[in-house]
């Protein structure tokens, strides 16, 4: 079963003109994304974290759009993209990224990921270094120490408890907004336009039953099958970001699928 599209989340006003949908030919998934910058510019893919959407990059995209073709999708299961009833594993997201590149006729791209998006980008670079021009990881990677889930996220994932919290937040929009406080150093200190946007967005997420079900799927473990993990992996991160990163991978199990 596949839930088509997503809730009526309005794009960030400054990016509304750059919003579009792309249907992936192999999987049939429809993804919402922002596509900003000259079509001939070096492509840069921005991947958001767990429970978020492409709008998490709303203040970053304008600064990058002059130098790059910036593509920021809502990952499947989140925001305005399709939400298939399936396990949302990191390899699934990784395959989706490559299918998106194919659909947009992009051979190589820079990958920028935050949190879950960083894990996806890291795997993509190791699986297909021929398709990754540059890798930027923010607050996440395959080799980062395991981290405990915060209490709020853990409660949302618990059967029964999660449903109860969603019902409470659906009936109390202010409580839903206040649930964001652990993720901001000073939520009330943000500009009014930011606070209003976040208040609306978190309540749109709470109202999205398909996204709630998707969050309950957890990444499992499977052995490493890519030979790149058994040797030193070097990614030559050249133009457009003019940087180099060397990834030293050891033979180990990876935390998904």
Commentary on this structure:
- The chain is of the alpha/beta class and 257 residues long.
- The chain has a domain at 2-146 and 219-248: Rossmann fold.
- Helices cover 30% and strands 18% of the residues.
- The chain has eight helices and ten strands.
- Strand 4 (43-47), helix 1 (61-64) and strand 5 form a beta-alpha-beta unit.
- It starts with a strand and ends in a 9-residue tail after the last strand.
Q: Strand arrangement, largest sheet?
A: 2-3-5-4-7-8
- In the CATH scheme, what's the topology name of the domain at 2-146 and 219-248? Rossmann fold
Regarding CATH, which class of the domain at 2-146 and 219-248?
Answer: Alpha Beta
Q: Describe the biggest sheet?
A: 6 strands, mixed
Strand content: 15-25%
Described by the principal axes of the CA atoms, the overall outline is globular
CATH architecture assignment name of the domain at 2-146 and 219-248: 3-Layer(aba) Sandwich
Catalogue the unreliable spans: 218-257
- How many alpha or pi helices? 8
CATH homologous superfamily identity of the domain at 2-146 and 219-248:
Alpha/Beta hydrolase fold, catalytic domain
N-to-C CA distance: 20 Å
- Residues in helices, as a percent range: 25-40%
- Structural Rg: 18 Å
What do the pLDDT scores average to? 80
SS class: alpha/beta
Tally of strands: 10
């Amino acid at each position: 079963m596949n839930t088509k599209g997503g809730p009526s989340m309005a794009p960030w006003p400054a990016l509304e003109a750059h919003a579009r949908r792309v249907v992936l030919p192999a999987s049939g998934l429809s993804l919402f994304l922002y596509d900003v910058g000259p079509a001939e510019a070096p492509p840069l893919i921005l991947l958001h974290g767990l429970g978020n959407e492409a709008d998490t990059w709303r203040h970053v995209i304008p600064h990058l759009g002059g130098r790059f073709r910036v593509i920021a999708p809502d990952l499947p299961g989140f925001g305005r993209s399709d939400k298939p009833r399936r396990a949302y594993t990191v390899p699934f997201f990784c395959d989706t990224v490559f299918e998106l590149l194919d659909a947009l006729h992009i051979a190589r791209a820079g990958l920028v990921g935050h949190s879950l998006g960083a894990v996806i980008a890291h795997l993509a670079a190791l699986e297909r270094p021929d398709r990754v021009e540059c890798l930027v990881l923010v607050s996440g990677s395959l080799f980062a120490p395991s981290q405990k889930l915060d209490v709020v996220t853990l409660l949302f994932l618990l059967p029964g408890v999660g449903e109860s919290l969603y019902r409470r937040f659906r009936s109390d929009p202010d409580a839903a907004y206040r649930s964001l406080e652990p993720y901001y150093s000073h939520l009330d200190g943000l500009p009014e336009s930011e606070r209003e946007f976040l208040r609306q967005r978190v309540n749109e997420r709470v109202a999205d039953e398909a996204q709630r079900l998707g969050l309950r799927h957890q990444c499992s473990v499977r052995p490493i099958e890519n030979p790149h993990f058994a040797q030193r992996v070097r990614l030559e991160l050249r133009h457009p970001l003019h940087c180099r990163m060397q990834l030293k991978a050891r033979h180990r199990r990876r935390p998904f699928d």
